[in-house]
Specification:
Layout lengths: L3 E8 L4 E10 L2 E11 L6 H19 L3 E5 L7 H20 L4 E4 L1 H9 L6 H12 L8 H16 L12 H7 L8
Parallel strand pairs: 1-4, 4-5
Antiparallel strand pairs: 1-2, 2-3
Helix pairs in contact: 1-2, 3-5, 4-5
Amino acid sequence: MQKERIILGIDPGTNIMGYGVVHQKDNKMSLVTMGILKLGKYPNHALKLKKIFERTLSLVEQYHPDELAIEAPFYGKNVQSMLKLGRAQGVAMAAALYKDLPIFEYSPKKIKQAITGNGNASKEQVAGMLKTLLLFQEIPDHLDATDGLAAAVCHYFQGSAGPDTKNYSSWKSFLKDNPERLKKE
């Protein structure tokens, strides 16, 4: 049975929101797009939240994803930062919910573990592995883009779309079933 879906991944942020879209057909995954929304130029938090909502809505309308994978805010020492990140995540989720999109939330550690096999991997290591998995040429200047993409790829590996979807627990198991995706240099 053929399984096809589009996954939108979002790394919420109050200065930069990263996003990535992947397409799955059967057990093959391909990159559709990735990018960022720069929010630093907006003068207040409320306006940033409005822009996050609008951009998420436009991504849903443009790419018609079947599911949203989003990075959960992580607990840090700065409560204000965590509160702002939670709001950013909330408005992105609200935009997806407005379009009846199922939402799946993953911790940063879970995403890194799924992509690299190491929950403590650096942003650079995650970006490098995504470049190998999805065969794109250059790592973007802002790693927030690959962080958003990583959320989508993590969700793909989880196989959350149902029983017909192959469940990969990590990049290693994906490469085992897809050896042609490993670029030899």
